[in-house]
What we know:
Blueprint: H1 7-10, E1 13-16, H2 32-37, H3 39-45, E2 49-52, E3 56-57, E4 69-73, H4 80-92, E5 96-101, H5 111-116, E6 130-131, E7 152-155, E8 160-163, H6 178-193, E9 198-201, H7 243-255, E10 261-264, H8 270-273, E11 286-287, H9 299-312, E12 320-322, H10 331-335, H11 337-349, E13 353-357, H12 377-381, H13 424-429, H14 434-447, H15 449-453, E14 455-458, E15 465-472, E16 475-482, E17 488-491, E18 499-504, E19 513-514, E20 517-520, E21 525-531
Parallel strand pairs: 1-2, 1-13, 2-5, 5-9, 9-10, 10-11, 12-13
Antiparallel strand pairs: 3-4, 6-8, 7-8, 14-15, 15-16, 16-21, 17-20, 18-19, 18-21
Helix pairs in contact: 6-7, 11-14
Amino acid sequence: MAESGAWWRQGIFYQIYPRSFQDSDGDGVGDLAGIVHRLPYLLTLGVDAIWLSPIFTSPMADFGYDISDYTGIDPLFGTMEDFDALVRAAHESGLKVILDLVPNHTSDRHPWFVEARRSRDNPRRDWYIWRDPKPDGGPPNNWLSEFGGSAWQYDQATGQYYYHAFLAQQPDLNWRNPAVRAAVYDVMRFWLRKGVDGFRVDVIWHLIKDAEFRDNPANPGYIEGRPPHERILPRHSTDQPEVHQVIAEMRKVLDAFGDRVLIGEIYLPIERLMAYYGKDLSGAHLPFNFALLSAPWHARDIERIIAEYETALPPGAWPNWVLGNHDRPRVASRVGAEQARVAAMLLLTLRGTPTLYYGDEIGMRQVAIAPDGVRDPFEKNVPGIGVGRDGCRTPMQWNATPNAGFSTAAPWLPVAEDFMHENVVNLTADKRSILNLYRALIRLRKRHVALVAGHYRPVAAEGDLLLYRRDGEGEILTIALNLGDDPVSLATEGSGLEGQILLSTHLDRDGEPIHGTLDLRGNEGVVIGRSL
Ligand code: GLC
Ligand code: MG
């Protein structure tokens, strides 16, 4: 069995979008004191680590992913005392705390950028990426912003363009400049000294750009209706070989503090993703594996994705899986409420660290946002094609009181209409709810070492059935997931499928022995256990 000792291998991560988790001061926006208040909930859920989306000083053009002070807490979220109290309370409860590090870009109000744009010879000028206009006055090359339009913003005062992979209010730092690296590594040390257990590094594959700023090639596979930046392939603007040296440096900074974790946000095909583990695993511990976020929800597709991923992993590299985050539509809306339960079983029985997105455990769905209620700058810049991220960032549904117990004030985004039923209190009381399924799955994963450290072994299956085994430490667990609406029946004789049902997604078959046939209802998944 693979070495599974480290906490970030054994644990279950939970992403909190702080604006939407719990408001404590009645301003309609979630905050740090709110998170402290809800730690007991996370303990009953059974997760081991929380990752907080950015809580740092920010003008909030991209809701905290535009930082103007890397070592300050935005007053909207509280104070540094609140932060210290959160880390203390979390650690006392045995929860690790992971912060979001956003090194690719700052806010345009960050003092570094304010200085950089003052003049061409300002000492901070080269901390960002400046280029002269083309002879016709146009942008230096054809690179596009992920949030629409050119990635170059003209600066009237100094007559040059600066590069921004996202909003114009998010100028990219120049990671080829050693001073920038040193400054961000100091930021890391600041938080590590405060006791944080690691970082999720924002758009880590963007950090280094082509030294010559060559034009990107057109994307022959562009699909009409997709975001406009997909019209070109980001060949020269992202995923450059030199980025791995930077990540190895970050890893060294982290390793000097002992047992911490480095997670990379990377949207790349599986074969490119693997490079982010670094040479001899000197890179990210966990390059986020987002393959399930865009997977067609069919048994054979999922089976193939798992196989590709497992096969591609470098020796010793630890896998990880993600079903949702603050940038992608909610899983319950992608696959439907019934399959969301099957997806939960998949996430918590695959080999590798699972990351849960807040609210997915109560089956939260994409919330429709009225056109005049849109907050996401991506949707504002590129309206009408469904890129908006507000719908997956709505307030956590705690109970049936006004605003779902999230806030005493009108929340910054609307609460889902179904919150009267779909909330933590109600779903806790409902024995067969998705929330209780999540709790049962997490308990199961803790009780059966094979689910954490066992091998992953695919088992041939047909149609809507996804079948695999996790074995090791004296037991074999078989996971059978029905990704369709119709019942599935399977002869188990001689197949090694015999055993006892440890858990069904319907939460009503515990202990049932399996002999001869395994019958699954539509949209049902089961874990079958057998001792060796
Ligand atoms: C990452 C974040 C996303 C943000 C973008 C720019 O993809 O997850 O929310 O908008 O980076 O920082
Ligand atoms: Mg608040």
